[in-house]
Structure prediction request, 158 residues.
Amino acid sequence: MLSNAIDGSTFGGDNYTSNVVNKPRSAYDKAGGMAYFPRMLDKIRLFADDQLHPDFHPNLGKGADGWCCDFLRVAYPDLRVRVLAGGTDEQVLEWCFTTGRRLNEIDLRVWNAYITKLGWNDDVTPTLNKRKVESGLADRDDIVTMPEYFEVDEGRKA
Prediction:
């Protein structure tokens, strides 16, 4: 079962067969040293191309997407326009630095530590646990963060 576990929406079940284009990149992937950013951009691009599974749609710009935009001090609607104008992930990130705020090495360390540990003993833990139960992964004690859950749930990791 695929999910946008940050806010609790799910999709999947027995009738859902995913095509790889419906899945955004891993939350661990980085652009300009920033984890999660490529995943957010993938969701924007896939949605615009009508390739993103509909259950992701209501949550675009919310949860981790919103936190990422807030950290960069850019508005999600403005980011969406910039992404759809074209360019690489790094070019879009540079636009974020110019439009919002430029991240330094410490900012990147803080963000990457936060986003890659999201769900581990924090306010997102109940959502992670709920998603694991709904996905039949409740017994997977090795899945302790949202990015780890995404890896398994989206088929990148067994």
Confidence is low (pLDDT under 50) at residues 1-20. The two ends are 13 Å apart (CA to CA). The chain is about 45% helix and 5% strand.
